[in-house]
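chain below, 589 aa
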Amino acid sequence: MLQVLAECGRLDTGLMSRLLDKPEQEVIAQLVTADLIYKEPNSQQYQTADEYLSGNVRQKLKDAQGATLLDPAYERNVKALEAVQPEIVLFIDIDVRLGQTWVPTEVYIAFLNRHLAEQRPASGDRAPSITRDINGRWSVDLPSCYNTFELTHKWAGGGMSGHKLLEYGLNLQEPTLYENNADGKPVIDTVRTIAARARLREIKDAFTEWIKDDKQADIHPQIERIYNETFNANRLRIYDGGHLNFPGLNPTIVPRPYQMRGAWRAMVEGRALLDHFVGSGKSLTVIIAGMESRRIGISRKNLYVVPNNMIQQWREEFKKAYPSANVLAVTERDFDSPLSRKRLFSRVATNEWDAVIVPHSQFDMLPISPEREAKTVNAQMQEMKDLLRESSENGRTKTRAEKRTTRQIENKIQKYKEKLKELSQGRKDDTIYFDDLGVDRLFVDEAHAYKALAIVTKMGNIAGISTRESQRAQRILAKIEFMQETHNGAGVIFTTATPITNTLGEQFVMTRYLARDILNKCSINNFDDWAANFAEPVTRMEYATDGVTIKPKTALANYVNVPELQSIWSQFADVMMQDIHRRGQVISP
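prediction:
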């Protein structure tokens, strides 16, 4: 079986039958007896044990249990899946916070009712409600028939009612209040802002204390079940790569175990973030992954995007590893004129290359087709429109900061419209686009250079979130989405030793690039959903630029629910740290 996996990159019982000169059903029976393969009930296809007994094993167990009603043979699947179920995260170990998207709305309503005096509405009157619209914004509705003293006044702060502060908390926003100075110009009212934020902190703490209380024990099982089904349902697949033979690889080069693991993972998954320490040999890992993918037919053309100053080094390393490889290493001289550029990409598109190596700068300038880019721009503009619409419809007066944010959103929407107008002119006859090159695998070295992807959020101006627009990040996003749409969610491999350096938001960006489908399965559709579940805003007092004034500054400074966040990260990231390597240990994915 290992020989077939090395030759095909997948299970092929027909090929095994021919190699062993045995009937295919006999081969399958032997593999089943040895617990090396399992039949997946939905596709009715056999999978290797490491593939079948990984991924969302909770859902797979439900599927197998349902299949036993029709075929008792699936009892074998059930027993195997039961043995690999992730340990249940108990309610006491779950960090439940105000505004988390997976918490049922009725739980927040129960908390709201806790702070309303006991008073039943008259017949026909509405009950208090908390709702979340399609754009992710929470709204609190309190009918006037209720005695809202405790919520409206006890939880008030800085001149803001408890009702409004509760809404801020649900939406992960921090209140900022303003006053006019002697010149009549609005400035931050530090005292009121601090008071409002302090009271919001009390509301958040009150929610955490309330939900942990034994009086709410009846909802604890529901919270525990939903959390585990959403964030703790996956068992990570263990990649080895030790079965690979590497035909054509220089016999003097012996890949390290983590390089074989990383190469095999990139081949099988078709996507990966190789987060290996500096000097670990990431280049060799993706060179092997590309050559092996091409050899077994997974990929016909591999494009390597590398730092400008590393082109020659990459070419030399590639030819050292695979002396007979047909490699095209592009230099800046190949782009000294429009005609040179056109000739170069014509060669890339029409010739059979084992690898094409291009510098970051020229990859950034390589356009994607107008219709493809327009699709990405339209999606981003729609996000902005949704954010603007919810801001206009929330029914309350905007603060100065919110007005500034609204203007920024409107400016971005206008820029997107101008871009779409430019793209509407269609393709140019003399231009070769990225999607014309026939690339099946896109390898991006030093991928941290593309982390500055603008984040769309309703949280406002908060440290730890980059809303700066980066053209290079925008361009690679369109190319990544094209690769994923045309290669079943795969096709892109990142390498970097520093995927996260400055802000928590960078972790979301990397996940957004490579594994948006994983986020969607966890009901995380945007950055605010991600932050609600895995990050915590923290307000600290800092001196303003004048060195005298003290102002509150809020930043996404802390992680919460770290094990489950790490589980999402590990589903696409292959991590190797230097201290672990020195001790000769293997990091479990």
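The longest strand covers residues 550-559. Residues 585-589 have pLDDT under 50 and may be disordered.
thats it, cya
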